[in-house]
Here is the input.
Amino acid sequence: MALPSCYSTDVRHLPGSYLVLETTNRCSVACVHCSVGEADHPHHDRTGFVAVPLVRKLFADLAASRSRFDVFIPFWLGEPLLHPDFSTIYQEALRLAADHGVFERVEVHTNATHLSASRVQLALNQSPIPQTWHLTVDATTPETWRRIKGRANFDEVVANVDHLVREKARLGAIWPRLVFQFIVSDRNAGEAAAFRTRWEGACRAVDLPVSTAAQEVPSGTGAVVFFRQLDAPTPAEQEHQNRIFRDTMQALGVPLPRPDQTPASLHREGQVRSVCGCFWKSPVVGWDGSLTTCTRDNRLQNQLGSIADTSFAELWYGQPASRWRAQVASGDYAGIDACQGCFIPRSSNYSGVTPDEIDRYAQPPGSP
Here is the structure.
């Protein structure tokens, strides 16, 4: 295919980049902090599964355009393991990564409700491509699980995760790296210590190396009990949840790699001003092919088009994306609907981009 003249095959990979593909916007739970749990949210007016031919079209375009991302994430606003062809999508993503270097690793996020025996078999492998599965349980009791997830299937979920842990140990599988995720909030902070004890103990019982971390999953291959702060819709609520997160981690003795999480009213005077890296590093493809710039844009206000009609390369590296990048690089978000009122570019909980990365991304084709 002929590539648009607005980008170079030499500068397209940036550190910290990730491609999100929503395999489905249907979910088996209704988390209180997710749009799935919001009545009448437009992202869920229609629900469905991404079509496998559309995924293959995307993958072929990524290979042809020599695109590269650090991570491929087959997940957005639904439970990925619900997709009837998830195994096909997952295996083809691994082949794309191995054959064309499009992705350095693959990262799955699941609530484990559909972590069946066949999904466990899929997950456990010896591929040359690193893989991480985030098992987002967020609770240690059925009551807290129901309060957060809106469902009464906590015991089944725990049994699914326990089975994955035991099978990984039994088979000696390299992948996936297991991440037991706990999103800390005012609804579950009191169970953080018990969560750590529960899943560290499950790993040690079968001799799997395990550690505990917060904010960022450290490098390595060992299992991680991972605490993450909740993303909130407003600076005031974010500040409240950040305080709970900091206090909880301090009580557990877990260090924070980025102790300043802002907002603190965005440093009160609003002096913190950063360029949001989403426009360079985190394209998001919805289950119907819609392409947008940010995982927070769940109303698709920044939609660039659909990969069902136009190639990913033309949409992501062409207009209006490149025009928006030039604008955002100067801190100007005027007319970019999803960004109006968003405080994330002025907080520490976002994907950063450096001036050098911006310059390299804007270089003409063939530039060194």
